[in-house]
UniProtKB/TrEMBL annotation:
Keywords: Oxidoreductase, Transferase. This is 3'-phosphoadenosine 5'-phosphosulfate sulfotransferase. It comes from Puniceispirillum marinum (strain IMCC1322). Its EC number is 1.8.4.8. InterPro entries: PAPS_reduct_dom, Rossmann-like_a/b/a_fold, Sulfate_adenylyltrnsfr_sub2, SulphurTrfase_DndC. One of its GO terms (molecular function) is transferase activity.
Length: 385
């Protein structure tokens, strides 16, 4: 990946002008509101940049909802940058009187990463059991759309590019209905627009290094963040077709949840640590421990949360984490929280986790006859933030 050296104001190549014209034309002629997904990463930044230019040029265009996902386990530097950008965008939109609003989704408490992992005992996500993307990203985005737009026709713009990976290209090709449009897998009245489908990584960097953002300044904070992490990104995911893509996971380096166990090694966290962000080291170690212990059968129950035993090809399929292991994860997480001095888990999540432990303990004892003693997690030993 050729990272730009500085934010020079090189003359904008014609391919970017052509894409801006495409965005202008599609936006100007559309009769439905827009959702522009924005992760704060490089690809969605290009798309948002272009849409804001269109919104300014065509004040009679439809409303644009800029939607980001905060999974509440985002890499701390990335969420910091994203929150900062939301503030800048809101100020700019208000000053210009644009028909644009900015929104951050979060998973409901019951579906949070920690409640699923530690409360319900779901093993850390992998490609076979990727329970995270739908709960942390797709469902919150869908819930936002249901609340604000309902069942009306909708246009959605994404920063998807064929050059991201071979599987991304296959997926785009599979769902495309024309050069820049694809279908949404679940919302029949939603069209997905992919204006930067054909850009390469270098093109994206060139654009970000060449333009002045609509709100002024430059993209150097973003460029420097990638430079330090040498990362890619886990995009805002608004459509289940993304589940067959590497998106957040197997491709590396990338930004995403700091807890992500879909990658063997989190090279973006590793890159940031190497760049001097030593406070991220405990997070990196904790994530690696989650990967190491995921498939250790001594951490797992031999039945699922409904008490059923399942076999595949004659082999026992291990179920959720044992209650003792869930307690160990929470204890370790609280130690990390204390070390890094950041709020990693909410008090309400810890309360719900205790309720779920009690539910499982009583259920397993009553219906399976397994007696599971459990020490309540002693919160007094830990600070919460
Ligand atoms: S970054 Fe990893 S843990 Fe987070 S939603 Fe994507 S795949 Fe799941």
């Amino acid at each position: 990946m050729n990272m730009p050296k500085n934010g020079n104001a090189a003359k904008l190549p014609s391919q970017f002008k052509n894409i801006q014209k495409l965005v202008d034309d599609v936006y100007r002629n559309s009769t439905s509101p827009w959702v522009v997904t924005y992760s704060g990463g490089k690809d969605s930044s290009v798309v948002l940049d272009m849409f804001l230019r269109s919104a300014k040029k065509y004040p009679d265009g439809k409303h644009i909802y800029v939607v980001s996902n905060n999974t509440r386990v985002e890499s701390p530097l990335v969420i910091g940058q994203l929150e900062k950008m939301h503030k800048i965008l809101r100020r700019y939109i208000e000053a210009e009187g644009l028909k644009v609003s900015v929104h951050m989704t979060e998973p409901p408490l019951y579906d949070s990463f920690w409640v699923n992992l530690i409360g319900k005992g779901y093993p850390a996500p992998n490609q076979m059991f990727r329970w995270c993307t739908s709960r942390l990203k797709i469902d919150p985005t869908s819930a936002f759309i249901d609340r604000t737009i309902g069942n009306k026709d909708l246009m959605m713009s994404v920063g998807t590019r064929a050059a991201e990976s071979a599987s991304r290209k296959r997926n785009i090709d599979k769902h495309s209905v024309s050069e820049f449009f694809s279908t949404h897998t679940t919302r029949q009245n939603t069209q997905i627009f992919m204006p930067i489908r054909y850009l390469t990584d270098d093109d994206v960097w060139e654009y970000l290094a060449s333009v002045t953002p609509p709100w002024g300044g430059d993209y150097m904070d973003l460029i420097n963040l990638y430079r330090e992490a040498y990362g890619g990104e886990c995009p805002v995911v608004a459509d289940a077709s993304a589940l067959s893509q590497p998106s957040c996971g197997e491709r590396s380096p990338r930004f995403g949840c700091w807890t992500c166990t879909l990658v063997k090694d989190d090279s973006s966290l590793q890159g940031l640590i190497a760049s001097g962000y030593m406070n991220l080291k405990p997070l990196y170690d904790f994530r690696n421990w989650l990967v190491e212990t995921r498939d250790d059968i001594t951490t797992r129950l031999p039945f699922n949360r409904q008490g059923q035993t399942r076999y595949k090809n004659g082999l026992l399929v291990y179920g959720p984490y044992r209650l003792e292991h869930r307690l160990e994860i929470l204890t370790k997480l609280m130690t990390v929280q204390k070390t890094v001095g950041a709020n990693l888990i909410l008090d309400q999540e810890i309360d719900l986790i205790h309720d779920l432990w009690e539910e499982d303990r009583v259920f397993f004892q009553r219906y399976i006859g397994v007696r599971i003693p459990l020490n309540k997690f002693d919160e007094s030993e830990f600070v919460t933030f």
